[in-house]
Write a structure and sequence with these properties.
six-stranded antiparallel beta sheet; FN3_sf; 36% helix; FN3_dom; Immunoglobulin-like; 231 residues; 21% strand; elongated; alpha+beta; Ig-like_fold
């Protein structure tokens, strides 16, 4: 472990505490009077510069805090001015306002494009005999979903509903239905449509029996079918 401490303040204190003993009789400890004067001068200079450094540090901290406050105030005032300029340009309908103010005009929103096709469409028969459908998809940018149905023996799909959620209950199944029913879901955003989802097939039960038990009716995916949509 070094005799002289590493920290600045402790090193200064070390030499300050030894100068008195060293200056009492320098020759007795192998030093010259000039050497004692040198360490005394160096210690005093170090003490003065350390105090100056600490004062500068404290001043800098205070100045930094003041500057942070000033910058925050400047940003708030500037943001208010920019908002006022943009509002004025919008109200007057004059795009040259942005040029005169040397700020960029707002960019036109990028069209969202067609939504992705719904996925993981599934269905079950509930205890009321209705078919509950659910699927995955996005509702972003005002997307909604169209649900289509086709009974066995039919050749065209019928639009059942346009809804803004990812579930649908089909309560219009005739009680006498015993054949399979197919559904697919298509996402729509303004006039843009996604690809249709893979169709899902719901088995309605045995001929002559109005099946209400979901557990007895399986959902089957029949992806790859050609979808002819009825108007």
């Amino acid at each position: 472990m070094p005799l002289v401490p590493h920290s600045k303040a402790a090193a200064i204190a070390f030499f300050q505490s030894h100068i008195a003993a060293w200056s009492a009789d320098p020759a007795a400890i192998g030093l010259s009077a000039q050497q004692v004067i040198d360490i005394t001068t160096a210690t005093g200079a170090s003490q003065s510069s350390l105090l100056a450094m600490q004062e500068a540090y404290n001043t800098a901290r205070s100045a930094t805090a003041t500057n942070d406050t000033d910058i925050e105030a400047m940003r708030a005032v500037g943001a208010s001015l920019i908002s006022t300029i943009r509002a004025y340009a919008k109200t007057t309908g004059d795009p040259s306002v942005y040029t005169k103010a040397d700020i960029p005009a707002p960019k036109a929103p990028t069209p969202a494009g067609a939504p992705d096709a719904p996925t993981n469409v599934s269905g079950t028969i509930n205890n009321r005999g209705a078919i509950e459908l659910s699927w995955e998809g996005t509702l972003a940018f005002h997307t909604f979903f169209e649900v289509y149905r086709m009974f066995a023996g039919q050749t065209e799909w019928t639009l059942l509903a346009s809804i803004g959620k990812k579930a649908f209950e089909d309560t219009t199944i005739p009680p006498s239905t015993t054949s399979a029913v197919q559904y697919f879901v298509q996402a729509k955003r303004t006039d843009l449509r996604s690809e249709p989802s893979d169709p899902v097939t719901i088995r309605m039960g045995v001929v002559g029996i109005n099946t209400n038990a979901p557990a007895a009716n399986n959902t089957e995916s029949s992806g790859g079918d050609n979808l002819n949509i009825a108007a």
